Amino acid sequence: EKRIGGNHKTVPRQLKPQHSTPLDKPNQACSKETLFSWRRMKYSSGDHYSQELGVDNLDQLFVQAWCLEPVLLCKARSWADSTGGHFPLSTKQGYVRYSSFNGNVEKQIKWGKVKAVQRSIEKVVRIYKKDVSRLVDLCRQCIAFENLEDLAACVRAVITDSEVKVVRIKNRLSPDYDSNTSKGYRDVAINMCINSQTTIDLGINTHICELQLILKSFAALKSEAGHARYVTFRNMRAE
User: Fold this and answer.
1) E strands, the chain, where?
2) Is residue 156's pLDDT more than 60?
3) How many angstroms separate the CA atoms of 178 and 182, rounded?
4) What are the residue boundaries of the structural domains of the chain, listed by start?
5) Cα 139 from Cα 131, distance rounded (Å)
6) Is the dihedral of CA 106, 107, 108, 112 positive or negative?
7) % of the chain residues with pLDDT over 70
8) How far apart are the C-alpha atoms of 122 and 169, rounded to whole Å?
9) Residue 177 and residue 171 in contact, taking contact as beta carbons nearer than 8 Å
10) pLDDT tens digits, residue range 80-93?
11) Which tens digit of pLDDT belongs to each residue from 200-230?
12) Cys staple from 151: which of 123, 145, 159, 237, with CB 3.0 to 4.6 Å?
């Protein structure tokens, strides 16, 4: 667990894009109301975010996720290529390195998709008490690895990326993790914001996305029937 940074237990939230304030312009006076608002925005963190800073509109979150999807995909390809990561094939069982794949790679690799609307609503209502800002895995990708060494190398690549701000790491590979809550499923999930010029220009640099890192030995156990059983289990727990 120490090798990949441990678990970040603070529950992250989606924040509204932060616009400039008069305090960004030294020669411009600002009112007490503006000063108070700026301080509240500047110093709020973790579970103490001011409520009005959190995104409260599911439509807004989905627009951000769709805009961020190609950016995260590009990052995931780069991280995978530099650390021995693989992506699942959509046409048959198996995994492939993106850089070594021949043919129409875009159609034959099963890329992660933005979370379905129905499941997103279920999660917001069942788990987050209708707090939309807690939904931080709308935009996601998954990379599979042959061994723990390559997986750990990918974690290091992510957390040292100058355009990435990691807000949480869920280490389900830790011996301390209770796998009963996920019916034995284990991976490492990294929640992050991507702060590149593109995301800044689009106003999505505060949107939190998720990168799932999994061992191929675990990924090989996935099946449609198994997922259906997990959905039943999840519904029984109202999650």
Assistant:
1) 87-88, 95-96, 140-145, 164-171, 188-194, 209-215
2) yes
3) 8
4) 53-237
5) 18
6) positive
7) 75
8) 23
9) yes
10) 999 999 998 887 77
11) 999 999 999 999 999 998 888 776 676 677 7
12) 145
Under a CB-based contact definition with an 8 Å cutoff, are residues 224 and 84 in contact? no
Token representation of residue 127: 């788990």
CB 57 within 8 A of CB 106: no
Look up residue 85 and give its DSSP letter.
-
Sign of the CA dihedral running 179, 181, 182, 186? negative
* H helix or E strand, kind and range, residue 166: strand 164-171
Those residues with Cβ within 8 angstroms of residue 179's Cβ, 6 or more apart along the chain or in another chain: 172, 185, 186
pLDDT in tens, 6-26: 444 567 888 877 543 333 433
Q: Pull the structure tokens for residue 167.
A: 């807000």
Looking at this protein, which amino acid is placed at residue 19?
H
What are the structure tokens assigned to 226, written together? Answer: 């198994």
CATH 3.30.460 applies to domain 53-237: yes
pTM summary value: 0.78
Q: Which residues contact 202 (CB under 8 A, 6 or more apart)?
A: 67
Using alpha carbons only, how large is the chain's radius of gyration in Å? 19
Whether 203 and 20 have beta carbons less than 8 Å apart is answered as no
Q: What are residue 58's phi and psi, to 5 degrees? A: -65, -35
Cα–Cα distance, 53 to 51 (Å, whole number): 5
